[in-house]
Every structure is written in C-alpha cells, then in structure tokens.
Design goal:
This protein is mainly alpha-helical. Helix content is 49%, strand content 3%. The chain has a three-stranded antiparallel sheet. A hairpin with a 4-residue loop joins strand 1 and strand 2.
C-alpha cells in the first residue's frame, strides 16, 4: 500500500499514515478499501454544487439559483473543503453564530440550504446519523430565537418621481440602465427582464411573449411593446448575444444585483426595482380610468374570480397595449392625451 511520494509526504506524515493503516488491519479491515471509500465521499462544496446542478432545472428564476450559489459559497465557505460526512454541529454553528442576530433572514437561508445539502448527501449514502443543521429539536436548543423583522412592501418610488428618474437613466446609456428603464416601462419583474432572450420578441406584432417556465405564476405572459421599448431592444440587439440584456459575457445575463446597483448609482438606492410595479399600479388607480382587471393583467397577477379571468384572457391584450402606451407616455413626461383618461374632479 503506497503512502504517497517522498516529494508530497514527509517522513513523519508517512509514519502517521502507516500507523493508521495498521490500526485498520488490527480491526480486521482492509486499509486500501477504506481509502478508496473515503475518496468516493465528496466534500461539502462538491455536494453543494451537485445539488444546485440537480435542482436548477426546476427553479424558474435565475435569481434563485444565484442566491443558492452565493449562500453556499460565501457563507458556507469555511466547510466547503471538508468531507461532507465529517460536517458536524460545531461546524454549522461556526457558520451561523456570526450572522444569526445581525442577518437573521440570511442566517435562516444558510441553515436551510446547508441542511438540504447534508440531507441529499445522506440520501446518497455519503453520511449517516442526524443532520447537524436540523433546526427543530436540535439547533433550536443551541441558538436563541432569531429577531423577527417586520415585513413590508418593496420600497417603491412615488410614481410622480418616475419621469425624472427615467430621464436620468436615459442620460447614461449603460446596459443596466437600459434594463432598468425596460423594467419600468414594462412593469415587469427583474427576473423576467434579466432572463429575456431574443426569440421571445416579435417586433412585427409588437409583443414580448414570456414562456410559462420563466413566470412566477407558471403561466405564459405577453407584454405589448411600445415605441420606446422597441428603441431599447434595437439598441441592445447591436450588442449581440443570447440575452437581450447581457452581462459581462454575451452568453450570460446581467447579474441579480445589476438593477439594484443601477438605482444606487442614480441616487435612488432607498427604493427597489420591484417597487416600480407598485408605482405603476398606483398610477393606474390614481390617474387613469383603465379597469382594474386590465391593470392586474399588465402585472401578470392571477385573478381569483374565474369569470373575470376568462374575460381578461379574451379582451385584455389590446386594452393593455393602450395602457402601456399611456404609462410610457407618462414616464416620458409627454403631454397628456385622450390615451390617459383622467378621473373627473370631485368638485366639477
């Protein structure tokens, strides 16, 4: 049985390996078989990467994939090189304690994802015994309750401020600024915009068709394209690549933080990209007479009323086209026209 080359293994280390091998022989075990078995067990990092690769096809949102990768690389970094069968409760606690109270939501995600990796490893025969990242009946006895954070809506810029903000974006034509403007104009979710590809665009019909697998509600969605949206698309097409808004590499989309960073650079870091959907909805309700179901359809919201949902599918597309034209005109600070029927004054 080889113990390693003299170039890689010191004499003292070779003696340690020999002693360990003799101890296995004394117990009636084959040290060479034990070594091969140990080599077959992946590290925690390998197990984490394998789990993400296996689960990624079922995750519709690329942001979700990126979050798992970041969590299991950055926060679980100290145990990535450790054999997955050797990860202990102490290891998990060392990951969680520094962030348990300071970043309670992040800590909860770290714990849950580490637990998932270790559960998968056990199912594959790489571990045995209890999961050291399990919460109920285990870590809940070792860690204090997390701080409960008040949950609110995404911070939304008031719709009255959106035209001036978009004007600032247009003055600095970066890819992230164009993507953020497109997000605002379409009232879409950031994941829908970042994952958008050219086959989804039909300029002749002036439609962006998002397949069900990329939508939050697993239903296909169509967005009517306005003149300004098409201008942005034509500008992006010149850059080439698979994605409409490419990242550093043409075959990769923008990162999950691109839109947030664009807002920070534009001195709007107190708001979120998702909040523009709220601004759009507030504008619809406060400034126009477009029906509620048309506004909800533009946001790809599901309607509980079956009759209303059927009506929306049958008639809403062209009404939504008029709505998006009106919204884009408002965002561009164009003069009001009969496309935006304002509500009558209560004092009239």
């Amino acid at each position: 049985m080889g113990l390693g080359s003299t170039r890689d293994v010191t004499l003292a280390r070779a003696r340690e390996k020999a002693a360990a091998a003799r101890a296995l022989v004394a117990e009636g075990l084959n040290p060479m078989e034990a070594r091969e078995q140990q080599r077959a067990i992946p590290t925690f990092g390998q197990a984490a990467d394998a789990l993400i690769a296996d689960m990624e096809p079922s995750w519709r949102n690329p942001k979700h994939v990126a979050q798992w990768k970041m969590t299991l690389t950055e926060y679980a970094g100290p145990i990535r090189s450790k054999s997955v069968d050797a990860v202990s409760t102490d290891d998990v606690l060392r990951l969680l304690r520094p962030i348990w109270q300071a970043k309670p939501e992040t800590a909860a995600r770290v714990r849950g994802r580490v637990e998932a990796v270790l559960d998968a490893a056990r199912a594959q025969g790489h571990r045995s015994g209890e999961n050291p990242a399990r919460w109920r009946g285990h870590l809940d006895k070792l860690l204090p309750p997390r701080k409960v954070l008040a949950r609110g809506h995404h911070a939304a810029m008031p719709y009255a401020d959106v035209p001036a903000f978009v004007a600032r974006l247009r003055d600095n034509p970066t890819i992230s600024n164009r993507a953020l403007e497109f997000t605002i104009l379409t009232a879409g979710r950031s994941g829908e915009i970042m994952g958008a590809t050219w086959p989804e665009i039909d300029v002749a019909k002036r439609l962006w068709s998002i397949p069900a697998e990329r939508m939050k509600g697993s239903r296909p969605h169509q967005v009517p394209l306005t003149d300004r949206m098409i201008e942005i698309l034509e500008e992006m097409r010149e850059r080439g690549g698979i994605f409409i808004f490419p990242g550093a590499k043409p075959d990769k989309p923008l990162s999950v933080m691109a839109l947030t960073m664009a807002m920070r650079r534009a001195d709007a870091g107190q708001f979120t990209p998702h909040g523009f959907r709220s601004a759009f909805r507030d504008w619809c309700g406060d400034e126009t007479e477009f029906p509620r179901d048309v506004a909800e359809a533009a946001l790809a919201h599901a309607l509980r009323d079956a009759t209303e949902a059927a009506y929306r599918r049958a008639t809403a597309l062209e009404k939504r086209r008029a709505l998006m034209i009106a919204w884009n005109a408002y965002v561009a600070a164009e003069p009001a026209s009969n496309v935006i029927p304002l509500r009558a004054s209560q004092n009239a």
